[in-house]
Amino acid sequence: MGKRILYIEDNEQNMYLVTFLLEKHGYSVSPATDGQEGIDKAAAEKPDLILLDIQLPKMDGYTVARNLRNNPDLAATPIVAVTSYAMAGDRDKAMAVGCNGYIEKPINPDTFIQQVEQHLPKD
Fold first, then answer.
1. What is the CA radius of gyration of the chain?
2. How many Å apart are CA 3 and CA 6, to the nearest integer?
3. Is the pLDDT at 88 greater than 60, yes or no?
4. pTM to 2 decimals?
């Protein structure tokens, strides 16, 4: 498989759709359903990209992003917020905690892969 993507998302339907789209395009997807699991998997797996929901149980995505950025091994790993938070300032808040990009939910299956690929490291 191609590049490895960690997807931190607690909603099963979103997890299914995003995983399906990414795998269809040759990516390997590792799922995490809460922030701590995502932080642990990121440290262990060193993915090429992290897709991060903001509204997570126990620990919100902003806290997860800050934790990921504090790990020197993950400091350069792109993080893209994939969230239904679409109010004014939400994008800025995500970028301020270390996210490199922001994709609003519901995702558009026709443009999602292109949006994700903008943040993947080039070979």
1. 13
2. 10
3. yes
4. 0.96
Pairwise CA distance, residues 12 & 114, whole Å: 22
Closest C-alpha among 6, 8, 113 to residue 54:
8
Q: How far apart are CA 69 and CA 58, in angstroms?
A: 19
pLDDT of residue 1: 52
Q: What is the pLDDT of residues 14-44, one digit of tens each?
A: 999 999 999 999 999 999 999 999 999 999 9
Which pairing describes strands 101-104 and 28-32: parallel, antiparallel, or unpaired?
A: unpaired
| CA pair distance 15, 32, nearest whole angstrom | 9
Amino acid at 54: I
Neighbours of 118 (CB within 10 A): 12
